[in-house]
Amino acid sequence: MTGKTLLDIRGVHTFYGNIQALNGVDVTVNDGEIVALIGANGAGKSTLMMTIFGAPRARSGKIVFAGTDITQLPTHEIARLRIAQSPEGRRIFPRMTVLENLQMGASLDKMKHFDEDVEKVFVLFPRLKERIDQRGGTLSGGEQQMLSIGRALMARPKLLLLDEPSLGLAPLVVKQIFDAIRELNRTQGLTVFLVEQNAFGALKLATRGYVMVNGNVTMSGTGKQLLADPDVRAAYLEGGRH
């Protein structure tokens, strides 16, 4: 069941120096939804994720989260509002153990609910419990992705931003990751904004989706509508089923 608007992105323009990466992007994520943003590599999807967090900052336009204008807020203040991110490339702390990585995620909440929350992460990703004392850098790619998502969940987010969670992973592991996202949304009502090159998997998972081409949102609709759209199928789905 989805509710009111949680994240509202309006007319956002983002630049790297003089190079424009986002060109007047409009995206809405409602409370309780899984929203997917698909597009080719270099379309601007990750830039939008990073712009939500203020690095890089939007040069113009507006980003509102839970009624608060976050467009000009520092990144650490945005995180305190209960937005958590699992960035592209996982970016865990490689020299820290699984447990220490999860403690870093919980530090925003001053570790108040650590024991309870870490158990939830271990139910979602039992492999992490088996690897609890292992250094992050020695985990497989799939385990690192689970740890990255787990660390983000330890901050008790209202909104989880996932940037390319399936990138470079075997199909079986991708299924595990997508099943976990579905379960979080179904059982905890967690709102998820998902950037994915795996368009088929992302749109099957999503309540709604957007298509980005060269820094512009060119299409939007329900996951089912976009999966059925001939243009989307031709551009992103041919041979892309996982």
UniProtKB/TrEMBL annotation:
Gene3D superfamilies reported in the protein's UniProt record: P-loop containing nucleotide triphosphate hydrolases (3.40.50.300)
GO process annotations (BP): L-amino acid transport
InterPro entries reported in the protein's UniProt record: AAA+_ATPase, ABC_branched_ATPase_LivF/BraG, ABC_transporter-like_ATP-bd, ABC_transporter-like_CS, BCAA_Transport_ATP-bd_LivF, P-loop_NTPase
Organism listed in the record: Manganibacter manganicus
CDD domains cross-referenced by the UniProt entry: ABC_TM1139_LivF_branched
Protein name as catalogued: ABC transporter ATP-binding protein
Gene Ontology terms, MF aspect: ATP binding; ATP hydrolysis activity; branched-chain amino acid transmembrane transporter activity
ATP-binding listed as a keyword: yes
Keywords assigned by UniProt, alphabetized: Amino-acid transport, ATP-binding, Nucleotide-binding, Transport
Superkingdom to which the source organism belongs: Bacteria
Domain ABC transporter: 7-239
Family to which this protein belongs: Belongs to the ABC transporter superfamily.
Presence of keyword ATP-binding: yes
Lineage, highest ranks first: Bacteria, Pseudomonadati, Pseudomonadota, Alphaproteobacteria, Hyphomicrobiales
